[in-house]
Specification:
By secondary structure, the chain is an alpha+beta fold. It has one domain. It is 34% helix and 22% strand. The protein has one helix and four strands. The protein has a four-stranded antiparallel beta sheet with strand order 1-2-3-4, with helices on one face. The protein is globular. The chain starts with 5 loop residues before the first strand and ends with a helix. 5% of the residues are buried.
């Protein structure tokens, strides 16, 4: 199966939360309401400096993805 890099998710039990899932390494889910992140990968042993820059970039891209998706609904 070919998955997109980012997916939107929501849940009726958390009506104020908006989630973006990143499906490639490092896989994570970010709640755009408060920027809380749930990691689906064990990042132990990764170079902290390298991964910190990459993760900051991916979190920014997750927000841009959400903004672009919402423009499609306007």
């Amino acid at each position: 199966m070919n998955l997109p890099k980012f997916l939107l998710a929501d849940n009726s039990s958390l009506p104020d939360d908006i989630f973006v899932l990143h499906t490639e390494f490092p896989r994570f889910m970010i709640n755009l309401k408060d920027d809380e992140i749930e990691w689906f990968e064990d990042l132990t042993g990764e170079n902290e400096e390298d991964i910190a820059g990459e993760l900051a970039d991916l979190m920014d891209k997750a927000g841009l993805f959400y903004d672009a998706e919402m423009k499609e609904f306007e």
